[in-house]
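Review this today:
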Amino acid sequence: MDSMTHAQQLRPRLEQAVQYAQSALRNLVSNHPDEFPMYTEGGKWSLSGERWTNWCEGFLGGQLWMLSQHASDPAERAWFRQQAEHYSLLVEPRKFDRTVHDLGFVFLSTWKRWFDLTGDPARQAVVVQAGQTLAKRFQPKGQYLASFLGPHSLFIDIMMNVPVIFYAAKISGDQDLFNVARAHCDTTRRCIVREDGSTAHEGLFDLESGAFLGQSTQQGWKAESAWVRGLAWSLYGYGTVYTYTQDPADLATSEANAACYMRRCPSNGVPPNDFDEPNPPYPYESSAAAIAAGGLWQLAKLVSDPQKSETYRGYALTILDSLTQAEFLGGMTPGWEGLLKRGIYHLGKGLGVDESVMWGDYFFLETVTKVLEDVR
């Protein structure tokens, strides 16, 4: 079965997922106004649990923006639009936040969507400022953007955030910004993307010399193992970077990540937390699958080889086929408040384990809506 036939067959379930998202997000913002939960506990959104770092505030607003375009009737779309603007305004002050490496997550999901819909330069300026702020994390000696843990640390997650710097460089014409983003991508590829296409979570650097010291992990099984959400961040991130650079090396890295993911995943396309952990305590990490599906759907449009494109599109649909079934879709479990079950935030800290996580919901809904747009 070709991928577009598969997509048409999945369409009723994808539309059902959007309908459930409408109900779940309406309940969330009505019951907990101005809150930004990161994960559920027992299927209920946690408002007080440990966050480790503040990186998820854009994902709620981003989902509201998506539903403002895809909700079932005009009144619903208008309501979600109002909420999307409100939750975007709540995060605006973070355009100056120099404490995190996640400003791409916060502003590409909210203010960039706002600008794309309106063309309002004031909305675009917020995204540009966020990119300029993130660029201040650049470490000249090591040629990388530092993670929130400190100037010695580079996270693979930053590959999903560096596009906000490329965007700021493109809009402002600032070549120095472009050079910062370019250098970070090159250092990440050299230091924590491996020959087999897998990725380390973290790279460590000597602050005096800028020399690379070695790979580490915060959320995977061990330093040299393959934490799968990090692999998905790289797959999606390098593909997005390629849209700005048109550098074949960026596309090749995304493809290598995709090959690793598809080669090592179970047949349903939903991985565990780490590919290398023996006897993992939980079989699935659905947020990694949702991110990978989005990255693969994007990659299918970036490659020139029709056979590769079909492969990537087909595997993305395999993932969505799984995630829209009762095992994973929250709407099929009475009382469950999240959109996508069986995600994991931080296994070692015991945070959001076998629960809904806000970024899993965001990337799942993003990919579902993109597929629905492409099959209409």
